[in-house]
Amino acid sequence: MGQRADELLTQARRAVPLAGRRGEESLLLAKAQGCRVFDADNVAYLDLFGGAGSNLLGYGNQYLLDAVRRASTMGLASGYHTAAEIELVELLEEHNPSLAPWVITPSENEAWQLALRWCRRETGRSIVVVFDGNRRGAVEAFHVAAAGPLGVSQPLVAGIPAEFARKVRVVPWGDVEALDNVLAEVGVDAAAVVLDPIATQFGVIRPTPDFLRDVARLTRAAGARLVLDETLTGFRLARGGASEVFGIEPDVAVFGGALGGGVARIGAVAWARALDTTPGDDLPGSPPPIAVLAASATLSVLRNESVHQRLEERGAQLEAGVAALSGRFSRPLRCARVGSIFALAFSRLGVTDGNSFARVDQEVWTRFARICREAGVLLPARSPVTSFLSHAHGDKDIEQAFEAMETALKKMQKEDEL
Question: Which residue ranges form the domains of the chain, and what is each CATH number?
């Protein structure tokens, strides 16, 4: 780091501990453009974090900047639903014709609260079943871990009451038999099964068609609702998200992430059109106009099929290059990928579930990520953590990532030979 960046990080450690810790893991941002972020000394880094998945089009995208300007002419009012929200829902239905109605929320967390309340109200039941690979996000109900037989859970975070955690059951990712057993044990009290289709708590795991079909079958046989987590996959994997890519037909889906284009936080809940249901009267407050207009701008760009084609090409380029480097240096560096979402890990057998996730070599990864950062490429501090490419990443940017990785592997090889 440069002098100014070091000074700011020192101040952050004292005055803003969370920003200080995150700054050590990545950087304290001064500005961003395209697929690069800059620190206070104007040092540029190739960004592979992607704003936790929200930066789908790239930083400083002109369509998104125009949306921000348009929002500013509306006085940046809050507390009202805007006319622009109607345009946004029309675009959402165009991208996901099997889903309606839609509720736009100010955040993903409020979207989850609405979706889970609906499931409990519609079924008259209380228990939610999740997989251990599900993304937790800011939802308290998901910050639990299995603590005994048949998925009984306990809080992962201090301050979550044990009785609250008992309303959630945790099933090992990919274990259909365990899901069947938990649903049988819970009986008529299962309100919903929540599915993160790529198990982002473990980085990225591509689901098998049989697994997805069995989850849907068992959920509906139990009289529960299937809730699809599209907060990372929605609009990023395809215009129709994971539902389109994997052929999943959820009862209700929750969106966020890329929907806001990295400009503002926003969430959405949508129900299967075939259910012909209503979301109820317990709805959250209105989303801010800037988030609504940024979401509309993002979806308008995604009408162009070349966007997802480009994302797939860059993702395939990254995956192939990492495999080549792994073979060349005889290191078990693996790239798990679905579209533009990927996760890197040093793992001989790959990450397929919670047990293999726990065996990833974190010490080697820490060395690797540190040297890549010194070479101008930002990778997550731990592994495997979900990472993202944006529409702004081009061939040469992926080549820059390979050069940094090659530099890191060479240096690690020399260090290990000493």
Answer: 3-61+305-417 (3.90.1150.10), 62-301 (3.40.640.10)
